[in-house]
Amino acid sequence: MRKNRLSDLLLYVVGAELVGVLSAVVSGGRFGEFYGKLVKPPFSPPGWIFPIVWAVLYALMGLSAYKIGVCGDPRNELRVYYAQLAVNFLWSPVFFGLRKLWWAAAVLTVLIVLVLIMTVLFGKIRRSAALLNIPYLLWLIYAAYLNFGTAVLNP
Predict the structure, then answer these.
(1) Smaller CB count within 10 Å for the chain: N or C?
(2) What is the rounded distance in angstroms from the CA atom of residue 153 to the CA atom of residue 134?
(3) What pTM was estimated for this model as a whole?
């Protein structure tokens, strides 16, 4: 039986995008209000940048996972992918919903480790899938700077 590759691709990409949407919904919205009141570290972008960047990153994550999902039996690699998506989901509710900046920094640290592991594992199967995660990893490192800086400046 031949799989429909386009529908698989859409499932991976839309699934990743839904993680971001659901995380925002669970967080309670009103991000701009809370974010606007925080003292932020240097080089902090305006709040409107975040949803644009995240939409692109979720699409890249989904494409990357799709490239792995169509290769043989990548169960362990995809387990790490889903684990990092779960941790990714947690960050917004912790930061914006609970307003626990240091806890959110801890979540982000775990997320960076998981994405590093995922990228290495993906690279062993398909280099292009690993490379698609480089922008995500770089953004997470930048986000960690912002998160830790914001936590320090807003005790």
Answers:
(1) N
(2) 29
(3) 0.92
